[in-house]
Structure formats: C-alpha cells, structure tokens
Design a protein that fits this description.
Strand content: under 5%
Radius of gyration: 11 Å
Distance between the termini: 9 Å
Helix content: 40-55%
Structural class: mainly alpha
Shape: globular
Mean pLDDT: 95
Length: 79
Amino acid sequence: MTREEVFAGLKEVIGIIRPQTDISRVNFETELVRELAIDSLSMMLLALAVEEKFQMRFDPAAPMPTTVGEVCDTVLNAR
C-alpha cells in the first residue's frame, strides 16, 4: 500500500468522523487538532476507525500523530 492510498482512505475516515470538513482542502500537512478541530473524542474515534480500516494498531506508548501525513506514516510503519 502506498502513502497516497493510505491518504485517500484516511480522507474517507475523516469525512465520516468530521462530516463538516472540506476534504478537498486536506493534505499531508493538515493539523488534526488546529485545522480539523479534532477533539479528544474525535481523536479516539479517528484512531479506532483507522485501525479498523487499515487492519493495524497504534502503539499506545508512541505519541499520537499531529498531522494527516503523520497518521499516514504511522499506518504504513505499522503494517
């Protein structure tokens, strides 16, 4: 799976978690909290949805990603 494929899947997940988000404006540098207004509950829902979609698990000891690109990289590194 490529980074672009993960990115496309992640945008789908973001569209479900944050339906008011203009997905066309999301890029690798988009900040989850500041730009997408992902709060703690939304972050947990996002993490669970990403884990399910990509059949992976976030390392609970690792810091949470702060950008869309970091989420993509975490998914790729976990596979």
